[in-house]
Specification:
The protein has about 400 residues and is α+β, with helices and mostly antiparallel strands. It has a domain of about 260 residues: Endonuclease/exonuclease/phosphatase (Deoxyribonuclease I, Chain A, 4-Layer Sandwich), CATH 3.60.10.10. It is built from 6 helices and 15 strands. The strands form 3 sheets. Strands 1, 2, 3, 4, 5, 11, 14 and 15 form an 8-stranded mixed sheet that branches. The protein has a 5-stranded mixed sheet with strand order 6-7-8-9-10. This is Endonuclease. InterPro entries: Endo/exonu/phosph_ase_sf (IPR036691), Endo/exonuclease/phosphatase (IPR005135). It holds the Pfam family Exo_endo_phos. One of its GO terms (molecular function) is endonuclease activity.
Amino acid sequence: MAMKLPPFLRPFVALGFLALACGPGDEPITPPDSGTSADAGSQNDAGTTVDAGSEVDSGDNDAGTVVDAGTTVDAGTTIDAGTTVDAGTTVDAGTSTDAGSTTDAGSATDAGSTTDAGSATDAGSSTDGGSSTDGGSAGESDSDGGYTQIRLMAANLTSGNGQDYDPGHGIRLMQGVKPDVVMIQEFNYKSDSAADIRSLVDMVGPGFYYYRESGAQIPNGVISRYPIIESGEWEDTQVSNRDFAWARIDIPGPRDLWVVSVHLLTKSSGARNTEATNLVKFIKANIPEADYLAIGGDFNTDSRTEACITTFKQVVDTSGPHPADKNGKEGTNAARGKPYDHVIVDADLRKYQVSTVIGASTFANGLVLDSRVYTPISEIYPAMNSDSGAASMQHMGVVKTYLTPNF
């Protein structure tokens, strides 16, 4: 007969059996709390493997990381003219290119002064194209494998009564041939405010970089698909309303492209030769021989044998064959009888010249752009047949194309 426990002992006996059932070291089983394995703070927690800050995080695509405008593709970092390409920093004309003299880019023409890329016309401000236009990027639309196509253009294409681009004829002509780099003359548009100049540049190429000399009545300048990492002006002592505008451009590959936009005097061949002589001195003092060089613009030359052309031979190749229009004509003045306008490059760049191809048309030696004779006109849309014949249009554009190595 079993012994009956007194009522007061029964709770203690029950607790003893419960302890034996759990076993040594076991913990009581609890419900799956949201703070454990199913907790948002664990494997399924937004702070772990599925967390926006981890492997599946938009942290790889997040604007706050590698694709963040504040990091590698930020116009304010590696490609910003205000940082590594800032004329006021490592590529400042006050460094290796600074002659420290009258030809010094560190003087009144210093890229760190009013003509600095850090001003209203700074490639690091509203003119900074950011990433897609960076010569250092890998997937350029104009790159073919290990080479990059670069189309250069000389453009004194103003019309109307104001020596400006307000009427739009010259803008349409530039748009029609899609240049990568323009050496532009009489660089005026509307009020000439930073916003107005920016709008003109964006019509030539959205997000393109540019340099425009300051304080000039009819300024020279440069418009570029690729970053302008240094820029300025060298004094033209023969004239008071413009200077020689230059830019150092970061094209793909180990060499930079230096371009000089010029507008020589109509006064006389002697005056033009003096200008050429002075410019050659600036070039020799400031531009590394290992880099590419292009001089382009309105030379106002009556022939290709003028003294200034001979003088330029010290730094560039001026030999033919020369660009021509659809009918094979080379003249670039309004009457098409004189070679006013030129794109001439050094021997290093000349060896990479290729045909200029626009639509189904091929120009083996480059193009003299006269919309009056260009057919089919649809190839250079939005240009119109009448644009090159607009009132006070005194020049034709000149276009040459190069295929430079990226190595």
